[in-house]
Amino acid sequence: ETIATAETAVTTNTVATVDTPVIADETVSQEIAASDLDVAEPSVLPGSFWYPFKKFSEKVQEILTIKPESKARLEMRLANKRLVEARVLAKQGKTDELNKVIEEYKARAEAAQKKLTEIDTSQMTDEQKEKIPALKDKITENSLKQIQVLEKVRDVVPEQAKESIEKNIEKAKERLQERLDKLSEEDAEKM
User: Fold this and answer.
1) 20 to 30 Å CA-CA from 118: which of 25, 133, 140, 168?
2) From the centroid of its chain, how far is CA 99?
């Protein structure tokens, strides 16, 4: 068992973050369950009669979510939901729906990252400020898991869909690297 701890390391097998041990190789080969991403397995998928109602419910959640840190958390959860849907659709060979869900995953993941940078701690209580590092860590941890799920999806989709999935893997790694760079800058400023 190899433990990787590094300021930033992004490779095809391992991504390690500051002070966050990641077990290399063995972890990557394991399937990431929906529960590992803090979401349930989807009971309603694109193409279902009920899917528009599911999306409407999510839109209502977005409208009712006000705080930037809550919006970041919601965007992360919605990105995770789309990713789990993508995994199921890939296994079912439904590439048309898969491509749409992957695009929404990408938009949600980018939105979570953006909302995370918009958090203004100057108006927060000390208790609220204490929760921000945990949220940042959670989003970073989720990024690692999302990359692993995307790699599994890439392995089961038809050839014509692999290029799109590969682009999303690269984009997810770029977002993670940006997040890690930002964390490193924040750590350097504290010292």
Assistant:
1) 168
2) 17
DSSP state for residue 20 in the 8-state scheme: B
Q: Which tokens go with 148?
A: 């692993």
Strand partners, 23: 3
- Name the 3-class secondary structure at 23: strand
Chain centroid, CA 53 distance in Å: 23
Q: Quick one: DSSP state of residue 49? A: T
- According to DSSP, the β-strands at 9-10 and 15-16 are antiparallel
Residue with tokens 């009669």: 49
Q: Which 3 state secondary structure label does DSSP give 32?
A: coil
What is the distance between the alpha carbons of residues 68 and 87, in angstroms, rounded to a whole number? 29
For residue 118 the two structure tokens come to 């918009």
Does the pTM surpass 0.85? The reply is no
